[in-house]
Structure formats: structure tokens, C-alpha cells
Fold this sequence. Notes:
Elements: H1 17-34, E1 48-53, H2 59-70, E2 74-79, H3 91-99, E3 105-110, H4 115-122, E4 126-132, H5 138-152, E5 159-163, H6 170-181, E6 185-189, E7 205-206, H7 210-216, E8 219-222, H8 238-245, H9 249-253, E9 260-262, H10 275-278, H11 285-303
Parallel strand pairs: 1-2, 1-3, 3-4, 5-6, 5-8, 6-7, 8-9
Helix pairs in contact: 1-5, 1-11, 2-11, 5-6, 5-11
Bound molecules: phosphoric acid mono(formamide)ester.
The site of phosphoric acid mono(formamide)ester has 10 residues, from helix 2.
Amino acid sequence: MSKLSSKHLLGIEHLTTEDIRTILKTAADFKEVINRPIKKVPTLRDITIANLFFENSTRTRVSFELAEKRLSADVVNFSSSSSSVKKGETLLDTVNNILAMKVDMVVMRHPSPGAHVFLARHIDANVINAGDGTHEHPTQALLDAYSMQEKVGDLKGKNILIVGDITHSRVALSNIFCLKKMGANVKLCGPPTLIPKYIETLGVEVEYNIDKALAWCDVANILRIQLERQDTKYFPSLREYALVFGVNKKRLDNLKKEIVIMHPGPMNRGVEISSDVADSQHSIILQQVENGVAIRMAVLYLLAGKKG
Length: 308
Ligand code: CP
């Protein structure tokens, strides 16, 4: 049934370019489905999916649940804050107890990088990574690539800028893997303290001047400053960050061209992006969210029932 090279989606790093193209192409079919008056298909009628969220989420959680319901899967939702994890139960015991109730697929968000790799080694169900700490967020990168393609066409040779807190961002790492596999040129911009050393070994460039970086790109994907993951002060103040790296209307007006503006959410308006940019005609932030449902339907469909 599956045309993907793995039974799990643990990250973009180990997907093939062919896998990515298959997911994006399948998502285009599902986007057509979710824009019909009747948005539901019976494709996963016999499949039960558990959404396990050990970390907060708005977009990813709702998007996966909608994708599962549009495919007619049975869905159970688990949130660590109201579970026996609070009583000391381990991740593996928690998941094995849920699987004992005959669950076929597990979608999980977890604060520990690599938690999904550990899980996939120990359980038979398909595992889908909905974000693991600062490591990867594969479905976000896939929906970002899909949204970029809709706006600028084939990503080969396109200039894509990722701005912000690269060090703490799983979105950045998954985007870098995905965009490089699609043949795009990738540049990173942010404070030197929030750009990992040796990141150029992934085939990306770094530019510390936001105005030069914006002038170079076709698409700017703007990331949130992840204060909750920062154990030390990486820059003097949010006000200074907004002044030096914030993407605002004045900066875009100074460009001699139009660029596409993206943000994975949640946004800190007035910090990394101003409201007049976030809500402008150049912004495709809500299209990203719409495309997220189609991408997740594609991933679930392509992985469902795949063994070994
Ligand atoms: N983009 C994203 O992962 O958002 P949530 O944290 O709300 O799921």
C-alpha cells in the first residue's frame, strides 16, 4: 500500500527525495478532497490512531486530528498533563498500554529529541513524529515545502531564507533537510548566538544582516524566538531583537521585489514579525495551516498498514 521507504515518519533526514515528492503529490489530491462540500473519504476506516501530545500544540494537534477524521480513522487523543505520566509512568509503558487497546498508528509530540526513534524500536505500530524537542518536525517541513511550491513552483534553485532562533528550532532543521533534498538554496539569518556552529556543513549559508538576507530570497520563513527552550540569555532584549532581526513593513518596502512570507506559528507579533507583515498579501501563514491537513492526510494514508 505504502510508496514510502519507511513504515515510520521520524524525521526528514532519512526520507528520500522520492518519498518527499510522493507525499507532496498525494497531498495535492487530498487538498482537492478537503475543499469539496463533503470532505471525508473512507480510506482509513479500519485504522485506529492515537495522538499522544507530551508538549503543547494548537496547529499540529488539531491538524492531525482533522486529517485522521477526514480519512475516517478512529481517533484517540492523549495529553500528558491529564494522564498517568504525572504519576511516574514511563513513555514505553504509557504507549504499550495504549497499543494494548488495538491502536494501529501513533502520532506523538515529545520534548525529548529522539523519543520517536526509541519508540519505533520498541513497538509494532507506525510512529509519526509531530515534533521532538529541538530535533525535527517533519510534517511542518513538508507542509512548508508544499506551500512554497504552490507560490513559487519547483523549489530547485529557489532562494529560501529561514530567519530566527535556529538553535532551538525543530522546524528549521526539518526545513533545511527538506529544502536541500528539493534542490533549493537555503540561507539562515539570526543572532550569532542562535545559529549553531558548523551549520554550514548541512549545505546552507549564513547571513547576519537581515536586510541583505531579505533582498536575496524568494521566500522568507520566519521563526519564533523559543524563550521556553532557552536556558540563558542569547540576546539583550526582545525589543532589540525586533529592531535588528524583526521582519516589518519598512524592511519589505525597501526591497525592490516581492517575497513570500511564511511562519509556522505560534507567532510573537511585534518580535520576529510585525502584524502588518503577518496579515499582508505577501503572507501565506494561513495557507500553510490549510495545507497542513492535506499533508498529514497524505502521510497517514501512505504509512497506514505498512509493516517492516
Ligand atoms: N507549527 C506548530 O508546530 O504549531 P503548534 O506548536 O501549535 O502545533
